[in-house]
Write a structure and sequence with these properties.
single chain; about 160 residues; 8 strands; mainly beta; disordered N terminus; about 45% strand; globular; 1 helix; about 10% helix
Length: about 160
Amino acid sequence: MKRFGLAVCLGSLLALAAPVGAGAAGPYDFVSGAIKRVGLSDSTDRHFILSAHNGPQGPNGQYTATYGKGKSAVGYKGTVTCVNVVGNLARVGIQITESSRSDVGVGSYEILRVTDYGNPSGDDQMDSLSPGVFTSVPANCADPYEDPTPTYAGNFTVNDAG
């Protein structure tokens, strides 16, 4: 579990330390960043780290989700299977590769919805990420739609390569 926590911390630092400006973003869609938020139905802290890129060999990247803090934290990791960006909205599909949550099976799939509201400032809406339900079939990255889930820290860079 210590390695999982260390990986989450390291991933957070990497995701937040290397944002890419839209002007130098390149010819492929991508989503990169990390956020923290609490649940909609509970007060459990959630920390999501995502690096998802389309490229010449197709989609690639990683996702890490952590629920709770310290020794009681649980979570899962996944490999990116699809990326679709339209403007400031993104859908990213993942396949679960590791899990310490009893309700998340290795090999299952999930869709993530990301909304980039720009750089955080003042009382503006913060960027959001909302995980979807787990399925046994590969995720479909059909057209993304806005997700205004409240977030209290973090930022995503969403690049629509057109």
